Amino acid sequence: MARLLHSEVGERLARTLQEDRTALPEPQLCPTIAANPACRAVLRQTLARVLGTLQVSEPQHDCERCHDHIPAYIDVENRSEVQTAIRLYPHVWWALWTCASCSETYHLICDLIDAEKQGKLPAFGRTPDVQPFRTIANSLLTGLNCTNFLHCPKSWERPMVRLKMWW
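^ that's the sequence the OP posted. Answer follows.
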């Protein structure tokens, strides 16, 4: 199992460095990767290669600091390339592979950005068209896993959720 996971991490790392965001591990895989010394060694080697050094130590992890930097990491990732984002925020990149909480936050923000680009959400920062309240169908929230993100009580999950969004 460790060998299979090790090879899978190597493959995903290669795809990630080629701008494939889907290659990042799902949040539930992060603790397994973090606990596997061979996987962490592959992560360290990849990070050293991107940073242009021979060897690198594992970045210190602080979820609060990482959560603060994830939006900036995503902006750099979207505006330039993954390797630039990794150079500027190596601790965020490391956490996306080893911390379930940071990985989940990253994936949720990316899902929201993608939904906005596809016209499923109003553009962030826009002034309200007619009313300051927006009603978002539960199917959209469920599709984006926002019910978990918002920690809505079970009674709010069906059939509609009304959210106050001030722009």
